[in-house]
Amino acid sequence: MADWQKISGGITAPKGYRAAGIRAGLKPSGLPDLALIVSDVPAIAAGVFTTSHVCAAPVQYCRERLQAKANAQAILCNAGQANAATGAQGWTTVLDQAQLVGDALNLPPESVFVASTGVIGKPIPLDKIRTALPTLIDQLTDSGSDAAAQAIMTTDLVPKAIALEADFDGHPIRIGGIAKGSGMIHPNMATMLAFVTCDAAVSPHLWQEMVSRASDRSFNQITVDGDTSTNDTLLALANGQSRTPAIIDPGPIAERLEAMLTDVCMYLAKSIARDGEGATCLLEIQVQGANDDASAREIARTVAGSMLFKSAVFGRDPNWGRIAAAVGRAGVYFDQNNLSIQLGDILMMEQGQPLNFDRAAANAYLVQQAQRANQSESGQSVSHPVVIQISIGQGGGQGIAWGCDLSYEYVKINAEYTT
Amino acid sequence: MADWQKISGGITAPKGYRAAGIRAGLKPSGLPDLALIVSDVPAIAAGVFTTSHVCAAPVQYCRERLQAKANAQAILCNAGQANAATGAQGWTTVLDQAQLVGDALNLPPESVFVASTGVIGKPIPLDKIRTALPTLIDQLTDSGSDAAAQAIMTTDLVPKAIALEADFDGHPIRIGGIAKGSGMIHPNMATMLAFVTCDAAVSPHLWQEMVSRASDRSFNQITVDGDTSTNDTLLALANGQSRTPAIIDPGPIAERLEAMLTDVCMYLAKSIARDGEGATCLLEIQVQGANDDASAREIARTVAGSMLFKSAVFGRDPNWGRIAAAVGRAGVYFDQNNLSIQLGDILMMEQGQPLNFDRAAANAYLVQQAQRANQSESGQSVSHPVVIQISIGQGGGQGIAWGCDLSYEYVKINAEYTT
User: Which residue in A64, A417, B124, B310 has the most C-beta neighbors within 10 A?
Assistant: First the structure.
């Protein structure tokens, strides 16, 4: 059981962080589109970025900054233009963005990180950012998480934020996070952005390791449509303002902080999957019995990404054959006579043999989970996933992935003529 | 230029083959569902099968047969039940199918190959096959290709068949093929089946090599939804009834036969992609400038399979950003400053720089190709693909992949509640 508690405040819940989000006129819709996150003091920074060989200028920029020094004090994020496939001009723009923020906050530009999401191939109107910046900085506050979470959204239906607090030897450490997901901004592409703040003091190398592992178990385990973005970015800051003892080496304290960090990332990841374009429910695929965790995760991801299975779930069809087929093509060897598949608490296949399960009950489970997921306040609860349990053998490897169903709405959102 | 001609006759165009297809009552629809292909003499056999670790009993059976001896004289194929995920019973059924056909044709059961497509996890009603077999054999004819092509269909809209003839030193050699594609049979899954007949005499090892390479350049380069089937099967027979000199070794003659075989496979593969569930047009992705052909093919496949790009094509949206993003995530390294993308004859990105192309013309091209593809006699022409040309550098590696757009109809076909 987790021995921490959920608190309000998102990325400004941890001590020593302020944030803001405003309308800068970058989105045609006129919605908020420029966010700034600032730490009171230089923070240890870690990042995980898209694996795409076509990556946006801000991704290249952040990678280079992190390689030079694992330190950051501010993150500027705009929505509206992705600054991807923008050639040499795109690179100049990201340098200018960092310079503008650095000048305004009296920080070295190297300590300003930049992220973008939106249309590919369109330049960011830098003058609009220049104009908006004084207001943005003026609105920085230690309760600014919600405004920032709103400003990084594209076609997300709801903002995504969480904060956790745990007691470390009598002193609280807090981790907060915001994310945007698999919304598409016309006319281009989905991007996953996540920003995490932490007020613990952690050594740079350890923090990067923690962030990478947490990302592997969360953001790398969600899929909406399999289309890795040019801009995917997770940036995580640790600023030491909790005044708790610095966490330098691996050990129980570091493990506990990492577990808490992973929880933050998993919540954000699930929120992104749940808010996948056109989604009506959240899928949670649990795999066990693999030789190692990586194999189990790969199978879970493959099932979560199967268009056939996703379509079946949208139709509330307990189509276990499509699950079996997806498991088989994941690239992980196993003996199909060991394959068992369960939907909710209904066993559908056991040790390679199909069972005569209650199809009406299985259908009812799918209907019910989708209803529950949509009855929450936001209509976007992650508390009622459709759970698939898969076992492929006797190994100790396990993994979980999250996804969503495939609906007419997905096609509609992405087929609409927009250029 | 290919120095062979298209002829009619499909798999019964080559000498020494007969085929039939009838209604055996395996499909709930009552449509033809049982096909038989027979060579007058034992033929050299080669096969390529699904890479899925969950594979159907007939796939396991054919693999074992080919490993034991590269010889076959008959292929029985049913549509309606996939005989996949059927446990021990499935294995018994496939042995019984081969035995029944062997007994009826007075052939050793080892020379009878079996393929299935349809619902996963449901047993094949063997009694219906037993009952239908005398009629099926009675209808075997050297013009039976069409009947067989019809009987292997699931939700395919049109049967898929081709035959080519070339002159080898004054004597004709013929290759024919039929295939079924990415239709889904309720309530389960898409399967690709292809059967190729050839009347040349080819040594077993050489024939398998030719078939494997041809498959790599055709069937392995199409994607409808990325869901590899449990039953995917290509079986190719070479029976020597052309009476042309046996082709034993690699060389110009073998290369020419392989090119012709590849042409047959490519035509069938394109037909399958064009007839992808819900598709309104065929996509042809041409990639050049890679370090090797395999890398180029991988990129082409990734673009052809991108849900975002497929949705955009359905919306007739010349969304090159989604193409660039898909190229980037294919897992092949390249310098994004070398990336060029062209739609039809409209250059959209050159050497990493986005161009101000004529968007109306690009949209018109997409509209026009879809119209042309649907104006043909069958409504399923493969002659007017939407062509995307991608260059990633100066390397000599090139590759092509085919796919189709993603429409509401795809979701409808696969979401319908059916169990």
Answer: B310
